[in-house]
Amino acid sequence: YKIFRMDYEEIEKGKVHSLGEIVEYVPDGVVNKTVLKKPTGKIDIVSYDTGKGLTGKVYPFDTFVLLLEGSAEIIIDKKVNEVHAFQGIVIPAHSTFTIKAIERFKMLSITVKSGYE
């Protein structure tokens, strides 16, 4: 499948944004837009088409994922979690995780770099 990374450009500060409109769905693809990136963490909006996802990733920092629409299966250290729109989950630092779209979905992803991991 295709992964599309939009050019990094922070969204305008001090302005209201509709998070679901920051990225669109691409057939058979994943679209990632970093909306804020600092040394202490980053915020991304990502869309996944049905059946697409990430497999076997491990990040050194905690990541909070909030689904904005759709449904996903998020497996953390072999524990299966079904997550739906307006539900969130924290993926602990150093955990192996997989994300798969049960149906196409958009998510807000917040990675916190504490510096102590």
Helices and strands, in order, run as: EEEEEEEE
Helix content: under 10%
Mind summarizing the main beta sheet? Answer: 8 strands, mixed
Termini separation: 32 Å
Q: What structural class should be given to the helix and strand makeup?
A: mainly beta
On the 0 to 100 scale, the average pLDDT is 90
Uncertain ranges:
none
Fraction of residues in β-strands: over 45%
- Structural shape: globular
How many beta-strand runs? 8
Radius of gyration: 14 Å
Question: Would you kindly provide a written description of the structure presented here, covering whatever features stand out?
Answer:
The chain is an all-beta fold. It is 0% helix and 60% strand. The chain has no helices and eight strands. It has strands at residues 2-5, 29-38, 41-48, 53-58, 62-76, 79-84, 88-91, 96-112. Strands 1, 2, 3, 4, 5, 6, 7 and 8 form an eight-stranded mixed sheet that branches. It is globular and about 40 Å long. Strand 2 (29-38) and strand 3 (41-48) form a beta hairpin. It starts with a strand and ends in a 5-residue tail after the last strand.
Task: Looking at this protein, list some descriptive labels.
117 residues, mainly beta, eight-stranded mixed beta sheet, 8 strands
